[in-house]
Amino acid sequence: ELEQKNINLLAGDHLTPEFMKLNPQHTIPVLDDDGTIITESHAIMIYLVTKYGKDDTLYPKDPVQQARVNAALHFESGVLFARMRFIFERILFYGKSDIPENRVEYVQKSYRLLEDTLKDDFVAGSKMTIADFSCISTISSIMGVVPLEQSEHPRIYEWIDRLKQLPYYEEANGGGGTDLGKFVLAKKEENAKA
Asked: SS3 of 36, please?
């Protein structure tokens, strides 16, 4: 049974002594699995599918397939998420109301890289893996702030549509990513009025 606790970063929930005991790096997410503490979303996903998965579909044991998944996870954290963070942090934590053009261009370049990567139905090949879960969470968050043009990125839109067909998509990702993008835009407007 999963018990989810929401952590409000803007309120500093991640800086409380209780949270710092779980994760001294004070980052989210954190998983407490009966006393086993795992931090960082990729590590959490790998842990969960390795420990509880019915098979290795989401995180293959085959070294070549696993390397492709790992490469896609690194692409998500090192390119997609990093470029989103460069925009979101300045608005959420530093009170900025502008998005420098070079940061928009970096995000647009990451869209092109993802578009070029999607040679198959999913980011790491022909089957869905945890890399898709990771990439969709970032893409659905940033595309509300830096528009993703369907005409320029048809494979990304087809991939998003495939993932939206999953019965658990809305619960797992549906509103969260979209809501984060809307929140950042609202905060940007609020900062402009300050």
From this structure: strand
